[in-house]
Amino acid sequence: MTCILSFIVLAQTSVLNDRELFIPSCLQNRTCDIKVECIIDGKYCSNNAECNISFYDPYRNILQNISNKQMTNNYTFHNYTTKRIDFYGNYKASVVCCDQGECNHNTFRVIVIRNTGYFNFDLGYMSNIILLFILLFFWLGCNIIALFFKNKIFASFGFFIGIFIGFMMFQLHVYLVIAFLFLNIITFLWYAKNL
C-alpha cells in the first residue's frame, strides 16, 4: 500500500512539474512572511543566488510597491516580509531566482485569511494559549469555591471570567464558544438560584 501511495505522489509531482503543492497563508491585518526555496533545473541554488519577488493583490495590482524586490538569502531558503496586509483574499506572488547565470520563475498563490478574532486575540501565540488555560483554571477554581463555600462573589467572578474566555475562544469554533457560554450561563443561573 505504501509503495502505491509513494508512486501516486511521485506521479502527481512529476505531472505538476513546477506548480506549488503547498499554498502559503497569512492572517489579515498582520505582516506576511513569504519563504521560497531556490531550485533551478532540479538543483538547489548556491549561497550566492538572488531571488526577487513581486506581490499582487486579488485585483492584480502591485501590492505595497513590492515589485522585483530582493528577498533575504537565508542559505536554505529566501524570504520576504511584507508590511501589514489589510484585506483578505487570494494574492499572487511571482518569484524569479537567478544563480550563476541561470534563472527560474515561479508563480504561486498566497491566501490571506480573514482575522475574525475579537480584541485581536490571536491563539497562534503560545503566550495567549497559556493565558487562556490560566483563565480556564481560574474559572474552574471560582466555580468550585462558589459551590463548596456557597459564595456568590466567586460565582459572579467566575461568570465574568467565563464571558471573557468565550470571546477569547471565538477563533477556535463558533459552536465551541456557544457551548462554553451556555455552560457558563447555566452554571451562573444555578448558583443564583441555589446559593
Characterise this structure.
By secondary structure, the protein is of the alpha+beta class. The chain has two domains: 17-113, Immunoglobulin-like; 118-194. The chain contains four helices and ten strands, in the order αββββββββββααα. It has helices at 2-16, 126-149, 152-168, 174-194, and strands at 25-27, 33-36, 39-40, 43-44, 50-56, 69-70, 72-73, 78-81, 89-99, 102-113. The strands form three sheets. A five-stranded mixed sheet has the order 1-10-9-5-6, with no helix packed on it. Helix 2 packs antiparallel against helix 3 (152-168) and helix 3 packs antiparallel against helix 4 (174-194).
Distance from first to last alpha carbon: 62 Å
Low-confidence stretches: 1-21
For the biggest sheet, the summary is: 5 strands, mixed
- SSE sequence, one letter per element: HEEEEEEEEEEHHH
What's the arrangement of secondary structure elements?
Blueprint: H1 2-16, E1 25-27, E2 33-36, E3 39-40, E4 43-44, E5 50-56, E6 69-70, E7 72-73, E8 78-81, E9 89-99, E10 102-113, H2 126-149, H3 152-168, H4 174-194
Parallel strand pairs: 1-10
Antiparallel strand pairs: 2-8, 3-4, 5-6, 5-9, 7-8, 9-10
